[in-house]
């Protein structure tokens, strides 16, 4: 199944808030419904958000074709529905550039972005699997964080797509999926996808990752990104930085897999990125809490970045 698609005049998504208990498909007919799905994380993951942004503009183009002011407002609302991942605004902006050509052209452009993400996932899976074998040898034991499978893209995935490719090649010893607080996207979504693929895996609490690396139970960390800055700083789900520190201490590779569309050369470093705060309610109902949704992993902790077009060896001084 595709995580997100355009079907008969509406956007269809897999509702990720009810997995793994239920596989539910939502049909979104309005910009407001799409934005609500983005903000509730019914659809999430940088590549999928890029597609969502483009499809949102396609919806707006049909509804507000005769009202330029309402159309511009809808595009701005889509672009800013979540601030940290660069793909959402980029997808919306690419589709919006086609607005002068009419709604059909906007939809065609949005579908092209969807197809690009599918092709990018397939390319990353192959490139990433080759790199893991190069760095770790045959049958590595991998640790991953958050969810980076088909649910975060359209099909296949980013980092988890690499895991799937290694599994298909028979070159995978096992996976540890960190549960990924506060919404348990690793325990709920990654575990669900790995189970569907038949990949042997275990779920670990987030704080256990560095210790498991130190104990020699992990050969490499492989995860995705919501934004990659010009200097190689990686913006990804909260907890990524801790895993990067653990990997550096253990002397194992820390590999980021994300499409080229996630590389943001206009943002110099992670210090320039607005980090989304999800609020205390997702953590606790009894006291105040700090709940950043992402963190910044300094580039000097990253071994390599794999995109659909290239492998960037940060450890050798290469930059995006």
From TrEMBL:
Annotated keywords: Isomerase
One of the record's GO molecular function terms: S-methyl-5-thioribose-1-phosphate isomerase activity
InterPro entries: IF-2B-related, IF-M1Pi, IF_2B-like_C, Initiation_fac_2B_a/b/d, M1Pi_N, NagB/RpiA_transferase-like
One annotated GO biological process: L-methionine salvage from methylthioadenosine
UniProt cross-references to Pfam families, sorted A to Z: IF-2B
Membership in a protein family: Belongs to the eIF-2B alpha/beta/delta subunits family.
UniProt xrefs under PANTHER family: METHYLTHIORIBOSE-1-PHOSPHATE ISOMERASE
Official protein name in the record: Methylthioribose-1-phosphate isomerase
Taxon lineage: Bacteria, Bacillati, Actinomycetota, Actinomycetes, Micromonosporales
